Structure to design on (316 residues):
């Protein structure tokens, strides 16, 4: 595959764009979530894998790239299409549309919240860090915690809104459209804490400027979980907040008033646009390898290196 003119040179094992800037991370994740890679054939995938092998042996022809984010880097297994990062938007958008449907029943609220958390859990597991195998019980614990918290908050808020007599029907409908955001955001935080709570007890590896492991830091683990949790809160914000605002405006137009059947297709397009914008922006907030001053870590780690700063893997 030929390199576009504005692409920097390909280096095996390194991101194509500089990760110290927000723009570089944004461009990197645009590559990762590119839905065009969903249509790569098995033969084309094998060809790309062979090109990477050729590169390792110094026989790779110039002008090729490994843009397909299809194979798990740790297990070398092909990731199931709906759970690839490139499939997150096309397969996740219908779920977002379902979450934002107006006048939902108790059953539909439970179903869409369950489906959303199930999809998130599968994506997280398929793209997990597999260098250090984790027990399946951790993922099950995180999944159940996320589902229970999302369903509980969504149902609870809907019941409160329905019982609020001060609201007009139109106001009640508008408020109900915003219910999915606090439910999903809270569930995402719950998922992170339950699945990675052992990191707070055991710490995570921190590396010096030469890439050598200095030690295992609980302080770095707190920073990593905080950054990940913040990302998980920011991610659903544009997806679940912007569409209700936009749709409440569009539904008042004469076009949609006279053609109510167009509301669902229009809402789907609005959700798709919001999803496509929110995902790369949210996951670009923090670098994958975050930096922290050595002096802020445990004394034994600070004493083990002369580097003023160390880095750690934030995780997804």
């Amino acid at each position: 595959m030929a390199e576009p003119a504005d692409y920097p040179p390909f280096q095996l094992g390194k991101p194509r764009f500089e990760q110290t800037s927000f723009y570089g991370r944004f461009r990197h994740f645009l590559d990762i979530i590119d839905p065009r890679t969903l249509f790569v054939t098995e033969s084309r995938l094998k060809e790309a894998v062979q090109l990477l092998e050729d590169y390792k042996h110094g026989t790779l022809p110039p002008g090729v790239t490994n843009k397909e984010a299809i194979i798990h880097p740790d297990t070398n297994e092909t990731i199931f299409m709906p759970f690839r990062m490139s499939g997150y938007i096309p397969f996740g958008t219908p779920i977002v549309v379902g979450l934002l449907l107006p006048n939902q029943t108790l059953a539909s609220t439970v179903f869409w919240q369950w489906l959303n958390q199930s999809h998130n859990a599968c994506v997280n597991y398929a793209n997990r860090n597999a260098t250090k195998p984790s027990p399946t019980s951790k993922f099950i614990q995180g999944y159940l915690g996320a589902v229970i918290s999302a369903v509980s908050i969504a149902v609870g808020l809907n019941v409160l809104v329905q019982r609020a007599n001060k609201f007009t029907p139109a106001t009640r409908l508008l408020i109900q459209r915003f219910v999915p955001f606090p439910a999903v955001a809270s569930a995402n935080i719950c998922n992170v804490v339950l699945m990675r709570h052992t990191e707070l007890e055991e710490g995570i590896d921190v590396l010096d400027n030469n890439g050598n492991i200095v030690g295992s830091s609980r302080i770095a683990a707190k920073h990593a979980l905080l950054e990940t949790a913040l990302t998980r809160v920011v991610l659903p914000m544009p997806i679940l907040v912007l569409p209700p605002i936009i749709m409440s405006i569009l539904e008042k137009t004469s076009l949609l008033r006279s053609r109510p059947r167009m509301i669902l297709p229009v809402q789907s397009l609005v959700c798709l646009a919001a999803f496509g914008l929110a995902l790369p922006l949210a996951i670009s907030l923090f670098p994958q390898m975050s930096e922290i001053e050595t002096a802020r870590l445990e004394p034994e780690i600070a004493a083990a290196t002369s580097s003023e700063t160390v880095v750690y893997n934030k995780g997804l």
About this structure: DSSP finds twelve helices and four strands in the chain. Residues 136-163 form the longest helix (28 residues). The longest strand covers residues 213-217.
